[in-house]
């Protein structure tokens, strides 16, 4: 017997949550497009695309993190006028269309994920514009992931001797496009802080442009939210510079009351602990299980990736670990891999474990 839940993804991040909910062997029912062969009364064969609702037993899960698209391939398990039982079909889940998911086992991690995905306070409350001359990446930072909302690229000609007009016109076009991206993609009711980062003076020149335009156009939304903007140095305008920005002490102080800050701080605390009190910082599943048995785990840092483990036994070890830490008053945060900060040192954990390497992804 299996219990089922019907959900409707409303935004890109919901696709990420769905990706983390799905496992091979689940059944998924959703609206989808199927190419169907038709035969006319004269016997000529053609094909048409029809929208139908299919229920498949999940076989392959493919998530494109850039486009936030989720494709699920599986075999049809319910009678359908267009698709034979057992035939393969790939469903691409769509925003604002419901799907129904059934599982044989609903563990605490899956139920937590659903709760987190449906909680409006879990939405992105930090935005960042990472830029350099001619390139800007507008990103939303949520507790679960980093979402690229817009990428602006404008060719900026070099300054010519005696004339800078082409250069300045192109810069204005670039700043205008970034400003439109901010207005389109940032929900100022939710976002508490907008980081504007660049090498050199690009960020300062952009901010001067942004608020000059805000005054000229009487843009109340920008003028009222001016205190939320924070200028930071970054080594480039590429998305990967976001990591260094989030670790900047001035930024972590400013973001202290936002949800994204928790993850960054936990990771920093772990590295500090590893340096100064190494017998209280551990990683690897076998070590974690021992520490958990001793009720020693204060903070467990664990990756979503580990719960996507298709091997049921390994996955259930991670689920048991999470349940045990929670039951004993420890806290959880997301990180790549599995690691923990202990309440107190445990002597016999410093011996290397044989099976810890094979358990990690």
UniProtKB/TrEMBL annotation:
It comes from the Eukaryota. InterPro entries: eFR1_2_sf (IPR042226), eRF1_2 (IPR005141), eRF1_3 (IPR005142), eRF1_Pelota-like_N (IPR005140), Pelota/DOM34_N (IPR038069), Pelota_N (IPR058547), Ribosomal_eL30-like_sf (IPR029064), TF_pelota (IPR004405). One of its GO terms (biological process) is nonfunctional rRNA decay. It is found in: Cytoplasm. GO terms for molecular function: metal ion binding. Keywords: Cytoplasm, Metal-binding. Residues 1-119 form the eRF1/Pelota-like N-terminal domain. Its cofactor is a divalent metal cation. Transmembrane segments: none annotated. NCBIfam families: pelota. Belongs to the eukaryotic release factor 1 family. Pelota subfamily. Component of the Pelota-HBS1L complex, a complex that recognizes stalled ribosomes and triggers the No-Go Decay (NGD) pathway. In the Pelota-HBS1L complex, pelo recognizes ribosomes stalled at the 3' end of an mRNA and engages stalled ribosomes by destabilizing mRNA in the mRNA channel. This is Protein pelota homolog. It comes from Hucho hucho (huchen).
């Amino acid at each position: 017997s299996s219990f089922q839940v019907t959900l409707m993804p409303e935004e890109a991040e919901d696709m990420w949550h769905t990706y983390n909910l799905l496992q091979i062997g689940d059944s998924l029912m959703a609206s989808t497009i199927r190419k169907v062969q038709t035969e006319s009364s004269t016997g000529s064969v053609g094909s048409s695309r029809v929208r139908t609702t299919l229920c498949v037993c999940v076989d392959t899960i493919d998530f494109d993190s850039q486009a936030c698209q989720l494709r699920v391939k599986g075999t049809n398990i319910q009678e359908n006028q267009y698709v034979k039982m057992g035939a393969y079909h790939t469903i691409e889940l769509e925003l604002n269309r419901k799907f129904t998911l059934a599982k044989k086992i609903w563990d605490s991690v899956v139920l937590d994920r659903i709760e987190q995905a449906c909680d409006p306070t879990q939405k992105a409350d930090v935005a960042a514009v990472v830029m350099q001359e001619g390139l800007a990446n507008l990103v939303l930072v949520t507790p679960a992931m980093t979402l690229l909302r817009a990428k602006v690229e404008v060719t900026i000609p070099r300054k010519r001797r005696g004339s800078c007009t082409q250069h300045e016109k192109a810069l204005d076009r670039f700043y205008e496009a970034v400003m439109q991206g901010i207005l389109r993609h940032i929900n100022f009711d939710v976002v508490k802080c907008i980081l504007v980062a660049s090498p050199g003076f690009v960020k300062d020149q952009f901010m001067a442009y942004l608020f000059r335009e805000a005054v000229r156009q009487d843009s109340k939304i920008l003028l009222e939210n001016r205190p939320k903007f924070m200028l930071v140095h970054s080594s480039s305008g590429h998305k990967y510079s976001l990591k260094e920005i989030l670790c900047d002490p001035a930024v972590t102080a400013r973001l202290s009351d936002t949800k994204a800050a928790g993850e960054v701080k936990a990771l920093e605390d772990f590295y500090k602990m590893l340096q100064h009190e190494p017998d209280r910082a551990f990683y690897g599943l076998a070590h974690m299980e021992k520490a958990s048995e001793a009720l020693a785990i204060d903070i467990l840092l664990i990756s979503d990736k580990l719960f996507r483990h298709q091997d049921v036994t390994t996955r259930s070890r991670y689920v048991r670990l999470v349940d045990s830490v929670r039951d004993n008053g420890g806290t959880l945060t997301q990180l790549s891999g599995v690691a923990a900060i202990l309440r107190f040192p445990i002597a016999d954990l410093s011996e290397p474990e044989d099976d810890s390497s094979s358990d990690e992804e």
